[in-house]
Known about the structure:
The chain is an alpha+beta fold. It has a single domain, classed as Alpha-Beta Complex (Peptide Deformylase). The protein has helices at about 25-40, 130-140, 155-165; strands spanning about 45-50, 60, 75-85, 90-95, 100-110, 110-115, 120-130. It has a 5-stranded antiparallel sheet with strand order 1-2-3-6-7. Strands 4-5 form a two-stranded antiparallel ribbon. A hairpin with a 7-residue loop joins strand 4 (about 90-95) and strand 5.
Amino acid sequence: MSVLKIIKYPSDILSQKLQPVENFDSDLKYIVRDMFETMYAYNGIGLAANQVGINKRIVVVDVSSKEEKKVLPIALINPQIVNYSKKKQVAEEGCLSFPGFFEKVVRSLSVEVEYYDINGKRQRIIAEGLLARVLQHEIDHINGIVFVKRMSLEKQIKFYFMFRIGKYKF
Length: 170
């Protein structure tokens, strides 16, 4: 197992829409294993492949330490959100690619996600609460959207100004 290097903002790969996984082989299983290892090493609850420099639509999530234990670690290959709840929630988010930076973001309270498991079997999950928030955050990543883009316009302007003057260094 390997702990991979976390790619920090403003790396170009964080703003790219990633390529779909086509081969559900042992290489994919090694990537997923290393992504979980990396996520745990950095005390994360979600990680997208581009955050470790991999141009593939892969997401790993584990909110079991934050929510009920019945939520297991999950790897999602080529995930897409097919339904968002109309009910929204504001909560603070952080990101391993923005270490030490946290801000409030509006997200749907629940989502329905279609994806493939590591064996290539099509799956569907309906997630609520923290799991829904993490899935939205990580699926945004594989679509080239960092969570700063989900902040209010006023907070985005402040963030980019502070980043440019060197207050935020990732």
